[in-house]
Amino acid sequence: MKTLALCVVGIIGLVTLGIVPAFAADDSKVKGATQQVETGAKKIGQGEVIEGAGETAKGVGNTVVEGAKYAGEKIKESGRAAEPQAKTSWENLRDSATAFGQSVKTFFSRLFN
What we know:
The protein is mainly α. Helices cover 89% and strands 0% of the residues. It has one domain (2-82).
């Protein structure tokens, strides 16, 4: 039974380590969820395997959910920050196409005059 508990704690720890660093900037909700994982893992270590595994699983789920929310907000922010640059790129493309068209017009005007 102890081997099973150690395996569960190890797997959950690896999953949590893979999730938490990516979303560590959200102090309140993600840290609260990781604390729930730690509490559950401690219960497993104390022999309360079923209760600890349940709490640990909930903590991992909460960590994923809160991390995804945080990542979504960061993606929205970066999209808003990139928006003016995208408009500038479009304006540059438009200006380049206009300049090219003007060059072609000038070339043929000179050729036939």
